[in-house]
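BUG-443 | component: ligand-complex export | severity: low

The export step for zinc ion jobs runs without errors, but we want the raw record kept on the ticket for reference. Input record follows.
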Amino acid sequence: MLLGVHNVFAVAAFGTLLVSCSQSGPSGAARVVLTNVHVVDMDNEREPQLRTVTVADGFIESIVGPGEHSTSRDDIIVDGNGGYLSPGLIDAHTHVRSKANLPLYVVNGVTTVREMNGSPAHLRWKRLVAEGSIVGPNMVVASPITTSDSNIYWRHISEVEEVAPLIDAYLREGYDFVKIYELEPRLLQAVLETAAKSGIGVVGHYPVRGDFKRDPVEFERALASGMASIEHLEELFEMVRLNSRDDSMDDGIELLRRSAPPLTTVVVRKWNQNRIVRLGQDYLDENRLFQITHYLGPTHLAEVRESLRGFEARRGVPADTTDVNGVLDFLKRLHDSGVILSLGTDSHSPTAIAGFAVHEELALYLQAGLSPAEALTLATVNGAGVSGLNGVTGSISIGKRADLILLTENPLENLSALRRPIGVMIGGRWFGPEELERMRQAL
Ligand SMILES: [Zn+2]
């Protein structure tokens, strides 16, 4: 199985991989050769083929058939034992609460996150991950939320003159996107024009508030205004439902098909909120949430408990009237009409735990009627697209960053196989099963 290999760190069977992490980091001292893996090919959507994938300096160097690769003595060999190698998952809408939460993504196979309300701390963690100094997913960091809605926690603007200096500052500080919340139309226009000139994308909520959104012409104008992505499919659902001519929502779906930029979904948070309100303690007993709360820091855990008490107190009273089944139907119809969707979770909320929520969101796509391959596309290829990483990650192809997860089963047949990665590679840095287990224990 390990033909002609001198430096054999690996591998007898699943669960007993001996390769430890950090032997190849972004600086890439050694090549990592992943042998005997079925490559889940998200670019060509064909049956996974048995391959050997070689990773050098953090990037995929070659993908060849069994026995076709040559190795040198310093190579680190990982025998995939016939398992499945999938592109790592991308959470395109999340809020990383603390550095301590970063491993939650890793143990769940999430290799890239797009932080949607960035801060200097997020920029620092991004740099530390890229250097290999801390363990975490690759980070794409959007600016602090920028809005004309006054909220002391966010970056408030009220004059057009403030826009250019602000975007200059975001670029200098290293943000990858400008994140917006509601903006007055004149400020929205200034942000979009200035950002376009500076070459930085604008992402965020549907951008305009008030009666404006009840006017289909203005609604479409804001959709088509040039944002790189619009977040929160469930919010768009509410707007379309309220504004469509009839309950079929055909005109609203058609309008989105025509004019929407890529959309990020974020269904799981509301889905779980509704379940808590409906089921109360039964939900808490059955749900994994309590089983995984030991992974959370004390502050977050206190918030979770507080919030669950709130949900429990409101039992029987709709805390959130979002029609979540309606959202899933909406998602499926948009997907079928060709609107580009990517996976987000809005993790930071008590009902969307970092990393774990990605798998819950994926399961909801199946419930909506997407195939496993379609669901995985939202979490890989499309996530890379909205993160500005089209040529960089999201699929297993030569030249792309080695963001990979090793699974025992084919995720295109059983999507929940993604919940139990036995190996995760982030930018060429390998975490085998023992390392992942150690990380779980340490959380
Ligand atoms: Zn958010």
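Assignee comment: Attached the raw record above. The pocket of zinc ion is lined by residues 93, 95, 116, 346 (CB under 6 Å).
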